[in-house]
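W.,

You were right to be curious about this one. When I first looked at the sequence I had no strong expectations either way, so I just let the prediction run and decided to look at it fresh. Below is the sequence, 112 residues in total, followed by the output.
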Amino acid sequence: MSVKIQIIVLIFSYIYGFIFYYLNKVNYQITTKEKIIYRSITTMLFIYNIVLIYLLILFKINNGNFHLYFFLLMIIGFINAYQMSNKLIKAKKVQDLLAKFKKKCYIKKNRG
């Protein structure tokens, strides 16, 4: 595997860690109010699909060669996305925007 392809896969793995974090967050928000069996099944299917998509893209980029450092970079991307989202939520401007957005959504939802 050439150096160019390795760099592309490393960048892809890091970005995929971000994508995985935000999709995981959406999955959690959707399934929090459901029964435990439904939550377990949807989470298993979600993880299965995420892994399958990652492997399919990896096959397109470098014929499916998988190394440990690809997985480590994906974990680092996941952790960085978690840290960045926590910093954004704590920021005052973002809290104000979220409050306005929730208020608008609540008003539209109760209109009928």
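Here's what jumped out at me. The mean pLDDT is 83. And, maybe more interesting for your project: Helices lie at 3-31, 36-62, 68-90, 92-110.

Coffee later to discuss?

I.
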